[in-house]
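Contributing: when you submit paired examples, paste them exactly as shown. First protein:
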Amino acid sequence: MAEASNFFVTAKEEILSVLDASVSGQLTSLSNIAGTLGRYGVSIYVLWYAFTVLARKQQTPVPDFIWNLCRFSIILMFVQNAGGWLNTSLVAIDGLKDSLSGNNDAWLWLDQLWTKVQQVAAHVMSKDTSTYVKTDGAIAALFTYFGGILALVACAIVFLAAEVTLKLLTVTAPVFIFCLMFGFLRQMFNSWLQLIFSSCLIFMFGSLALRAGTSFLNIVLSLAIDTVDNRNLIKIGATAAVAGIFMAWIIWQAKSYASQIAGVGVEGAMQGAAAMGIG
């Protein structure tokens, strides 16, 4: 019987710890850079706006000027983490990720599934009673491993990509929030926000798909253990392979749905903000 595995949990912790060490201090550095650029940008804006007023290009110069300065001030407060606003926002993003995933560790599910795959592969191999070469048992075990590994790799890639993307996006937050100050840079902020929501939604849809797919694969593998005999070893292995392929497809589709929904949501939010005069 295969021992309980913690390969995926350990791999995630090691990768994220290396990533944390690599980006350590970058948030403060980028915040200072974005704050400096923001102050220069405000100075240039004031100079440009004064010229447009003198040239009579503004219909309501004083209200527009006050509104834009207030908007710039609020954005710079986030950029420079005044009062811990930026840190609070980043903590909220992490909380959103955990809430959408149901506060379940997907990597622990992967380890449990990997243990199950090893157990079933060893079981079907042991049921081959051939005297010399256990061909049927070996083929069935290979099928089982193929389906299980395909599902595990697909899940690991999707979740790790979302984890790394979210980590890097939060580190670079000051730069992209700064882009919200000026209209010609706003699309960069929109894309950044879309990726944030996409990564968070991947955890929600991915966790749902992982639980559903794992339950389905567990049923198939459990039935394989209960019904396996020397006559249907290859059939059982092929069934396990199909279940693994199906689970991998579900996870990949969950990633696509998350990206599409995030794109629509951000676009609608920014259009609403523009209609209210905020954007």
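Second protein:
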Amino acid sequence: ALLIGLFVQCPNDPLIYLEEKIKELQSKLKNYQLHMPNERHLDLSWDMLIDDEFRQQMTKMIGSYLNYLFDLESGEVLAPQLYEKAYFFYSNGLLRRCFCAWKWYIRKVRKWQMKMLQYTLKAEKFYTTKTLKVTFQMWMKWVQFQKMQQTLAAQHLQHVSDQLLCKIILQLWSALAKQTRKTREYFERLERGELDDESDTQLAQPGDIKDIISLLPWSVILQVFSYLGVKELVRAAKVCQVWKVIAQTSSLWSKINFSPVRKQIEDNDIANLLRSFRPFVIQLSLRGFSNIGWATFKSISSRGYNLGTYWKV
């Protein structure tokens, strides 16, 4: 009766409901014993603890089922198969609920694991990106430092190269200036007639000699150049510095013969040659000339006392 009352009425607080109904049964039992002292048991029905309002709401079918299940006054006993079926139904319900709860838990755990995996991948990606960024920044600083070092080294090397180049240029310029001054002084002395034939070789340095003629003794060189005419001596003076010194030797210009080149040479050229070598000219030949001008006569007259005997026309 208590279970049926709980099943039908579904009170908010089952414990209070059971406590009240048990007290009600105890009071009914006392009243029953007072009226019938010889009876110790109270006749109970399955719906005696159901309130009237709930009893009116029950259908006849529900009442017959409950009466069949809980009315044991007829002496009938339920079959064990029914108990077994009820037990399996209840256990299957519990198993189904546990399985659904387990599936929900597994689904939730997997969802949480997937979310944690996504967070882990995102964290790894962020860490990798941050590490690469820091490494790239450090590499950029190192590259900039190396470029700056290379630039400074290149500037230093360029400065050293410029200094060495300036030093070499100054040394070469100094040597060239000394050689030029020495050459200029030599020709000035040569024009003044202060040098003899042997001193003419002082200008020629061993490093400047590059031909076979220059390697010969000075007397042999003068003998070879003595066979040259005026035209050949002028050309030889243009070959190199050594030949220029040899061609300007005073002994080669002591006897000048303009006859072979009388058709090629002009009056001004004769005057210039006589003006350059007039201190050394002893014999002058103008045989065959018909176009001698005033410049030539003026140059001859300046050294006429030396040409009085040897002037040939």
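If you have annotations for the second protein, write them as plain sentences, like these:
Residues 197-209, 305-313 have pLDDT under 50 and may be disordered.
The domain at 200-307 is CATH 1.20.1280.50 (Monooxygenase).
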